[in-house]
Amino acid sequence: MSRTIAIVEDDVSIRKNYTELLEKQGYKVQAYSNRKEAQLALTQKLPDLAIIDIGLEDEIDGGFTLCQALRQLSSSLPIIFLTARDNDFDTVSGLRMGADDYLTKDISLPHMLARIAALFRRIEASNKPTSIEDNIITGSVTLCLERMLVHWQQQLIELTVTEFWLVHSLVKVPGHVKSRQQLMEDAKVFVDDSTITSHIKRIRKKFMVLDKDFDCIDAVYGMGYRWKAEAKSDIESNAKSTVN
Amino acid sequence: MTINRFSFKFPSLFKLKFRFGLRIKLFLLSLFLFAIPLLGYQYVWEMEKYLRIGQEKTLMGTVRAVATALHERPKLFNRQASFLPNVQKGRDLYAYPIVDPIQLDGNLNDWRNQDRALNYQNDYLIEGHDIYQPQSLSFKHMVGKYREHLYAYFSVTDDSVVYRAENSLKIDQNDLLQIAFVTPAGDFRRYIISTKKEGWVTAYEINTNPSAHSPLHSTDNQPIAPENRIQGMWIETEQGYTIELRLPLSLLGSQLSFAISDIDEPNQTQKITVGTSQFMQADQLGTVLLPSPEIERILKGLDHSESRIWVVDKHGRVLAKAGDIKNSDGVWGKMTKPELTDSWYRPVQQQLLSIYNKILTTPPKDFKDQLYDVGQLEGSHITTALQGESGANWRLTTDNKAVILSAAYPIFSDGEVKGAVIAEETTNGIRSLRNQALQSWFNIIIAVMGLGTFGLFVFASRTSNRIRALRNQTEQAIDDQGKIINPIAMSNASDEVGDLQRSFALMVQRLGQYTQYLQGMSASLSHELRTPVAVVKSSLESLEIDLPASQDNVYMHRAKEGVNRLSTILTLMSEATRLEQSLQNTETVNYAIDEVVSGCVQGYQLTQPQQDFTLSVDSLSENPDDNLLSKLKVNQVNGGPELFAQLLDKLLANAVEFSTENTIIDINLVHKNDVFILTISNTGELLPVAMQDRLFDSMVSVRKGQQASQLNNEQHNEQPHLGLGLYIAQLIAQFHSGKVELVNNIDATGVDAIVTIPSIKNNTI
Questions:
Q1: What is the SS3 assignment for B141?
Q2: Does B575 sit within 8 Å of A192, measured CB to CB?
Q3: Is B676 within the bounds of a domain?
Q4: Chain B within 8 Å of A85 (Cβ-Cβ)?
Q5: Which of A168, B87, B285, B300 could, after both became Cys, cross-link B255 (CB 3.0–4.6 A)?
Q6: Does A40 touch chain B (CB under 8 A)?
Q7: Yes or no, beta carbons of B571 and A86 under 8 Å apart
């Protein structure tokens, strides 16, 4: 059974390009040009994934409204914002609305496809029992690659796909400095340095919600970031808690 | 794409050292107010002139009224030698009124006005022309009237005084005084005073008709009997002798003669006689003028008038007088000075009065007027009056202290001028009045001018302050780069300055909107362009998937490369805007600046091995013994470490780009006076002078195309330049409350980028 992807985009060329591309990949695509149509159709029958532009025809924040509506109907529906707006403010609000990822329109198609695939994989994996072998455990952090989940001290941290890939890129080689360029490649995004900086900032904040003393993502000025091992006492206490 | 910015710079022309401001201009204009008191002063002077004319008319009226009372009363004047066509001084005597009683003791100190005494010498010689010598005989003589007597004195200079012999019956063989007069009844009388020794003397009446008794000695002076109503004192003096005597007015008519005869040796018949006139015949006698009691009685009624009034005979000799000139202020003198009212401004008023009194000439109370010899009044007005016309005259008193107005009017009798009435007044009344007018005028003027000038000054100050405030606001509205920093407040004032302020406010507001539009343009442009770029990109990628053969096509490569570059440009274009937005949401933290700097430099050294960097951090040298913790504290700044790294990125990239090959970039961090100074120095091309002020504006780039192609770094070669690097660096420095400067170094071999960041205050650690 092929998955259904809804595309809500007011620009005809982009809409058609993406529709064709996704159809070629074997997805079933529903394309809408404005919010009203999309909301009407999508609330009738939810798609498996939604790609939404923020500015929709005459509604400047139509994408946000639609996202909220869809999120109310389903908490697990993957939603991706694909937009020309690249400022921090819109990114933060988009993610706060419950979107799973926030992409700018100049993302390359393979990167986007990889993201879509990853999101579907995550949904599938959540239904299956996890295999511990796929996990990466460093100190207090546990990365579940299959389901794209990150646990810090056994507590789940909700990360977007881009964020998960960034964390993964750092955690898989703890102590090594990853340049922003490398991080961009690993996260399959093509953005400028300051966008990476703000991604890292958001990830830190998410960790710090659980643990105020979180200090593992270390900025190496002029080079990039690295995953820093925790202080020993922390690891010991964590190890004890896992044993127990 | 270059966007011009507006820059407001006032030309230095306006910054003159001396400012001829509104306040000074208005002050100068208000000087015209001083013309008002001048006009007032002029007006008061005019008024005084009219008052003087008025006083003259009034006085003339007084004189005419007095004269009217004296017209056609010949009796009053007949006694006064009015029959004489002219009077001769010395011959026609004038009895001065004597105020204080005279003691007949030979001592002349009780005679006032002795200066009016006449000296009788050879001009008045009657006998002895052939033997007269000046030192042998001369005398001073004066007559005066006191109550019912006529007083006279003779101060005789005589080299030898010959008294009457003890046994001599004759009374004329010695020095003697002859007296001759006509009684009111018309009888001619002669008297002789001679004495055997000095002392009390009595006159002997002489037979005026000697021929009846002894025709042979017609010149003999036959004494009939002593006349004890004519008595006096004979006193010998150093020069000769003095006779002081009196005779009752009842005996006296209008004709009188005195003569002194001098015999130098006893029993000698030759004698010298000096006298006021011939005394032997009644028709040869001189006259005497006595102040007329009848006229004085008439005038007495005028004693209380405000004038001094004289009545003179037709020879100008005073017949009567009433009033005192010192009380003669004229009609205006009665206007009393207004008393100072007892109020709060009384001290001020007193102060002002004392000042006025210094400026204005107050009429004196004690002036002296000794011009008139009452025996003979003179003046143009009197002359005019005695010719039958009325006249007036202004003159100064002899001490120049007061001005006296005199008016004269003739007295007629039988169509003849018998005399004149003269009235005199000082102008003190008018002067007091004028002074009072000027004083109250000055009071008002001082108040008006004070208030006026103060009002103008306040108005000018307020206006110029408002304009200055507007100027300050205008200057503060736009910074050196032409960026709008403060809006101008809208004013509610309804006048022109308010209008101007509103216009400026609107102008700055619109300019602000336009600048905002320009600033946001790159971001919105990149936003708008991103969709078509996405179309091209997705289309190309779709093509690649559809036609795998096209993947290796060179045109496909170039197209993708071009789109990627376009994409990068769009990202860079919105970078500054995104940074500005994110700065607003970024929380500041404290971090160690030297760690960030050294980390960044190490990173650069790794990523760019072809470029040499040297780093020197002096900020720790102040406390070399401190432990790590305090060092950290010392080197803390407030801001965002990633942001600061970004700033370093930009400046270092700039330095690398502009440095000459194979030179070293120096990075130096110094802590001085609570401020970190980071200097990044590179050797290479200097900054163009014209661009120095605008280097940190967005969209300004001084790069040259050839220089970019010379760079070895391929990554940089691909990077398009929008001139945003320094703009972003400045934004970040400002976020740290610091600043960035780019200057040519002292040796002019390269460029220094100087970042100044304040360190956090010790008390916040």
A1: strand
A2: yes
A3: yes
A4: yes
A5: B285
A6: no
A7: yes
Shortest Cα–Cα distance, A109 to chain B (Å): 6
For residue range B143-167, what is the model confidence (pLDDT) as tens digits?
888 888 899 999 998 888 888 888 8
Backbone Cα Rg of chain A: 19
Q: Is the pTM above the cut of 0.90?
A: no
Band (pLDDT 50/70/90 cuts) for residue A29 is very high
**Same-domain pairing of B675 and B550:** no
Annotate B270-338 with DSSP letters as a single string: --EEEESS--SSGGG--BEE---HHHHHHHHTTTTSSSEEEEEETTS-EEEEES-GGG---GGGGSPPP
User: CATH code at B550?
Assistant: 1.10.287
Check A87 against B530: CB less than 8 A apart: no
Q: Do residues B704 and B557 share a domain?
A: no
DSSP string, B172-228: SSS-EEEEEEE-TTS-EEEEEE--SSSEEEEEEEE-S-GGGT-GGGTT---EEEEEE
Bridge partners (DSSP) of residue B678 are B669, B755
Q: Cβ separation of B602 and A17 shorter than 8 Å?
A: no
- CATH class of the region A130-243: mainly alpha
Domain end call among B558, B583, B608: B583
Angle between helices B428-477 and B496-546 (to 10 degrees): 0
Q: Sort out which chain A residues have CB atoms less than 8 A from B527's CB and list them.
A: 84-86
> Would you call B578 and A18 a contact, using CB atoms and an 8 Å cutoff?
no
Contact B535 A11 (CB under 8 A): yes
Interchain pair A88, B533: CB under 8 A: no
> What CATH code is carried by the domain that includes residue B422?
3.30.450.20
CATH topology of domain A4-126: Rossmann fold (3.40.50)
Smallest Cα distance from B462 to chain A, Å: 48
- Does B114 lie in the same domain as B162? yes
Q: Which two tokens stand for residue B44?
A: 């008061």
pLDDT at A31: 92
Domain range for B740 is: 586-764
Cβ proximity of B323 and B305 under 8 Å: yes
Cβ–Cβ below 8 Å for A191 and B571: yes
For A13, which residue in chain B has the nearest alpha carbon? B535
Last residue of a domain, one of B391, B407, B436: B436
| B718 and B575 fall within a common domain | no
Examine the domain organization and report whether B237 and B141 are in the same domain: yes
Interface contact A222-B574, CB threshold 8 A: no
B566 with B590, same domain: the answer is no
As a whole number of angstroms, the distance between CA B451 and CA B457 comes to 10
Nearest chain B CA: its distance from A95 CA (Å): 16
Chain A residues inside the 8 Å CB shell of B581 = 87-89
**Pair type for strands A4-8 and A101-104:** unpaired
Chain A (111-150) residues lying within 8 Å, Cβ to Cβ, of chain B:
none
Q: Which of B434, B420, B378, B425 is nearest to B402 (CA)?
A: B425
Report CB contact under 8 Å: B542, A106. Answer: no
Mutate to test the interface with B, among A221, A223, A225, A226 (most CBs of B within 10 A): A221
Is B14 among the domain residues?
no
Q: Which residues of chain B have pLDDT under 50?
A: 1-16, 214-218, 621-632, 705-718, 763-765
pLDDT score at B692: 63
User: For chain B, how many structural domains are there in total?
Assistant: 4
Tally A–B CB contacts below 8 A: 115
Closest residue in A to B719 (Cα–Cα) = A192
The closest of A102, A208, A88, A230 to A157, measured between CA atoms, is A208
For residue B615, what are its two tokens? 């780093």
Tell me if A88 and B601 make a contact (CB, 8 A cut-off): no
The pLDDT of residue B765 is: 41
Q: CA-to-CA distance for B114 and B48, rounded, in angstroms?
A: 40
Is A182 touching B (CB cutoff 8 A)? Answer: no
